[in-house]
Design brief:
Structural class of chain B: alpha+beta
Strand order of the largest sheet of chain B: 2-4-5-7-6
Distance between the termini of chain A: 50 Å
Number of helices of chain A: 18
Order of helices and strands of chain A: HHHHHHHHHHHHEHHHHEEEEEEEEEEHH
Shape of chain A: flat
Distance between the termini of chain B: 75 Å
Shape of chain B: elongated
Number of helices of chain B: 3
Helix content of chain B: 25-40%
Strand content of chain B: 25-35%
Structural class of chain A: alpha+beta
Number of strands of chain A: 11
Oligomer: heterodimer
Radius of gyration of chain B: 22 Å
Helix content of chain A: 55-70%
Amino acid sequence: MIPELGHFALILALLLSATQGGFSLGGAARGNHAWMAAGRSAVVGQFVFTAVAFAALAWSFAERDFSVLYVAANSNSQLPLFYRIAAVWGAHEGSLLLWSLCLAGWTLAVTAASASLDAPFRSRVIGILGLISIGFQLFMLTTSNPFDRLMPAAAEGQDLNPLLQDFALAVHPPILYFGYVGFSVAFAFACATLLEGRLDAAWARWTRPWTLAAWLFLTIGIALGSWWAYYELGWGGWWFWDPVENASFMPWLAGTALIHSLAVTEKRGLFKSWTLLLAVSAFSLSLLGTFLVRSGVLISVHAFATDPARGIFILAFLTVVIGGALALFAWRAPRLNSAAGFEVTSRESFLLFNNAFLVAALSLILLGTLYPLFMDALELGKVSVGPPYFDLVFLVPMIPLLALLGVGMHAAWKRGLLGSMRVRLVVVAAGSLAGALIIGAAAYGDIRPMSTVGFALGLWVMLSSALIPVMRLRSRQPLPAAVVGMVVAHFGIGLATLGITGVQSFKIEKDFALGIGEAATIAGYEFKFAALRDVRGPNYVGVEADIVVSRAAVPVTVLKPQKRLYNSGGNPLSEAGIEVGAARDLFAALGDELGQGRWSVRLQYKPLIRCIWLGAILVALGGLIAAFDRRYRAPVTSTAGDRAVAPAR
Amino acid sequence: MTPRRKRLLAVAAILVGVGAAAALASLAFKDNLLYFYNPSQVLAGDAPEERTFRIGGMVTEGSLKRTEGTLAVQFVVTDYRHSIPVRYEGLLPDLFREGQGMIAHGRMNERGEFVADEVLAKHDENYMPPEVAESLHEPQPARVAE
């Protein structure tokens, strides 16, 4: 009964999405306020019924209703309640429902917060969001209905993929989707602007906090995914340039470029059409990511669907949304001229460089991600693009980007750099280089060209960011939230750069065959395989090793890696044993029994790896602080006239 | 600067930027493209001899052998027409099993064995790497009667 209610709710949500899209866009086009109001009311209904559908599916999981195909395929009666709920988005159908719910949530938030906007513009935004909702709900109902019944009902479910039975991965998809879908707001704003054919500073000011919010969720989602891959996939890597990772990283790069370009559009009225194009791109890349991940064209743990009908639907949807938006852009963007000029060393030109480098990195990553698909489609052989390609094409634009970042933050709008600032920055740069050499020599006893460049850039970005609040406080200038957010986020980027450099330059990863009582030494740490015992969890059994770590005969820690076998059957799963430290992680994973009482063991030394995720948290925190800047909450003045009768267009 | 010269400068900057990116991409592509072959293609001589590549197929039942107490392992990969022995030293992925799909990265040695430096296995029960699935579904030569 409950699943059928969910199914009906989903159909009603689709009808309300159509109402929302049709009446809002139609009302805006004809200046009909009753229609526009109807479109706004549909938003609430659409959210409620999508939420009901989602709750019905969650209920079916919680109640172990194995007569629902999706529930039977992705959960098990022994699965703890937390993971049964997380299993709702553990596979294709449910994750689409979650996507749809996120979209309905964002739409509701935009509708609630946009009362001060010009009514037709507001309705166009709501209408475009409605059109996107239609696409996703239609996709679910026609090809991927999570409420399909299984006749006869299964006695027992097949279980959630054990790799996904983990806290970080349970919360990773909702956060990531919230970010992905959040870009739909900037997208809808851009399309509405193009439809109206005018763009002012108020538009950019309005879009900024929404874009920041989406981007900060995406940042956290990506960081969680990376952290999960590190400890759960069992092999200690934190980024693999897997197509699925790229699928979430590309919208992030576009979103990062967008927040910077929006700053210029708001403050100086420049880069207008470029900003719109980025807003369209960020969401298009989110959709492309969905296509890549969910259509089964990629080889990955995330590739759920292999049904060709789904792939074709997503591809058609993608073509309509991206093609439509780009066509609208080509038609209307030439109307948006920006005439003002700026100096070469002004902040505008630094932000232009920021955008150029981010988009270059993004394009090259996109090329590497799609290249195998093109080759395959053209029957030119099966290829994959290796991580070294991505390392290189990402690193090359990032070095000048980070170098310019430290200067750009201190450059004034329109004019150039101030004289006294130049001296300070030279001092900071020299200090960063010295610091990099000291870190290399003192901590790792090795000064390599690339690690020195990385450490120096990381320190440079951190120090030049920190200089801003110091100088502002000293000269008693105000320190608005937007500036604090920028400083925190950039400091985080610097910290993550330090971490990435440390790990990539000085990590040690080695496999050993160890018996009880035997030891291996890496990076000065002795890892002794001390004991092996059986363990039993709520839905698995396994073995656990004691690996005693000591340094110069002083005990450091005991690592307890496990090898688990889930009761639902299937393959064993390694749980790594990790000792976390500010300066380094020590990592042990248990492999297979090799005979003669020996086990294969992977031991790793990962310097500064925590800085990567800590940096990512600071980046997201910076976005959060900036999104709460008071100026975004001030009433929008230049597009006032909402309450007046809308002028005839 | 006149607007005309400014625009010219902007176009030149874009051209230089795009050119640099294209050069970087082709440079990076040259060494980092990994080709995929199944055992039949390798035995037919399609695979490069000097470069590393990826081989994929099913792990033959009963072919997995370990050198007791060490990390050295060998097994046979097959596409049900031809088979190639694979040697590897290190941890096998959790999901590696006989009778299931896998992909290995490495190169051929002079004894006709594939020496792998990385082994990847399927990610869940129902999963088979698309390359493997497709290469298994190619028409079997035996069935071609003419």
